[in-house]
Amino acid sequence: MRSLKLLPVLILLGTSTALAQSPTFGLGRTPTTEEVLAWDISISPTGLELPPGQGTAAQGARVYRLRCARCHGSDGTEGRAPRLVKRERPADTHPWNLGRILPIRAPYATAVWDYINRGMPLNREGTLSADEVYRLTALLLHWNDLIAEDEVMDAKSLPLVIMPNRDAWAALPDWTPGMPRLLGYPH
Amino acid sequence: MASKQPDRRAFLKRGAALAGGLTLGGVESAVTPEPASGQSVEDQSVEPDDYSTPELIAYGKRSRHVTSVREPVNGRPSPDEFGLVFHIGTPLQDQVGAITPSSLHYFGTTRGSIVPEIDPAEHRLMIHGMVDRELIFTMDELKRLPSVTRLHFIECAGNRSSSRHRTIIESHGMTSCAEWTGVLLSTLLEEAGVQEGGTWIVAEGIEEVKGASSLPMAKAMDDIIVAYAMNGEPLRPQQGFPLRIVVPGFEGILHVKWLRRIKVVDQFYMTYNDYGHLRQDSDDAALSFQVGPKSVITVPSGGQQLPGRGFYEVRGLAWSGGGAVARVEVSTDGGESWFAADLRGTPQRFAHTAFSFDWTWDGSETVLLSRCIDEIGQVQPTREQVAEFWGRPGVRGLDNSIQPWRIEGDGSVHNAIA
Fold first, then answer.
1. pLDDT score recorded for residue B49
2. Is the CB of residue B242 less than 8 Å from the CB of residue B118?
3. What is the ipTM of this complex?
4. pTM of the full predicted structure?
């Protein structure tokens, strides 16, 4: 997995020695592969950059107890921090109207992974391993009835989870310079 | 007061620091202001010492008689018990001219965060992803590149007026305007060589949550500034020191601070800052992207008190994400009649423009309004017009509706939103 991901970077490095600095101004340098990998924590909705690792909801329960329960409560429904589990609502409720609860609102499961990976635990950001992030993501998806308790989440399976709001979000306008805020809007 | 009396040692130290043949008396006469009315003799004797210490000669500060300060928005304390900082509003009621002083510029954080301490000598900016040449720059290298200096406002999407707000800092305080200096992002992207299919960028900061936003390539290639300075000096830490992006006319959350990484990608990445900003309706999404034409009267504004009937210069600020302000109109009779306001200087694109309007108050109750018309013809709406257009109450997207201030017979000024 990782070696495949590295391939384009390595090819680029192999062919770019003459382009070590910017072409017009001759400034900057080519970052090393390690530098790019260390900093690039972006995760595409397609899961392109997801790192190796894996986890199930069952495994996530232990990580959650140690790293999350203090703020989010023992089952993600209480505590000072935002709720993590959808509320009971009539079956015909549109999933968007279940509120801004990350593992339900997020149109892509990768967004759940990204959010936990960047932002959690509060004031201890960056201390979760990739395996732990997969496990916690699996737990939250399971708590919201989106995957089974023993379903393995990894770089392949996570992007394939169909989130209920996958098609419910609005794309931003196809912006061009000088365009009004909203075409046809009189204000 | 006795503790502030200048002592002999301080005088000697100050004299030594200044040197250069200036006599002490010359220094005193140069910095002692004309006696202001109402100022006590005792104050005058203290002031030269207050403002002439070696520290303040090296880096100045304002008079202690000037007390205008920022305030946390929505009453949430900043910093909180964990040291996290939330949204802080600018005291627009005290602002003169278009530029917000750096110390009073509003600031917000994605989720509440601790302003990071960054050594500029260690800081790097990486340009990578779908580019021909991945590049990493030091701050010194960025400062060698061709630069631009432009006036731009930044406004938070949460800058919404409501009937609950009493003062302008509550209703409008999360917009500010500074003169930004830096490298155009297009310069950096051209150096890196954007590959075909590179239609979006992700900009990311170095703070604890690595706050990141997705932006369309068309904007990146148009006018986004990778800024290292504001108002003539390096960025303030609260504004992203040593590096941030300024995205002219777009909502505040997109102006990523503490910038360390630009990744060229093939789609909207729905990253950290994007996720919470999603809308279900495409009109809402559009109205939550580029800021609409907007203005507000800063004097007189909510919570102020007119001392009596007579002449007043009504003052305010106007701005638009559609470009430069074309004109501003003011009504002093609740919207019955409108008159062109005077604009201060040449309006800059995506910048606050100060305006004024001469007004003689006859002492009767009335409502003051202002509206902005921008260079592409967008007109700032009333709240009623917005509700009528959508067929439901409320203002969708970033609230750019006209702010009414009611002047009561006793000269008190109030928010007139019902």
1. 63
2. yes
3. 0.88
4. 0.88
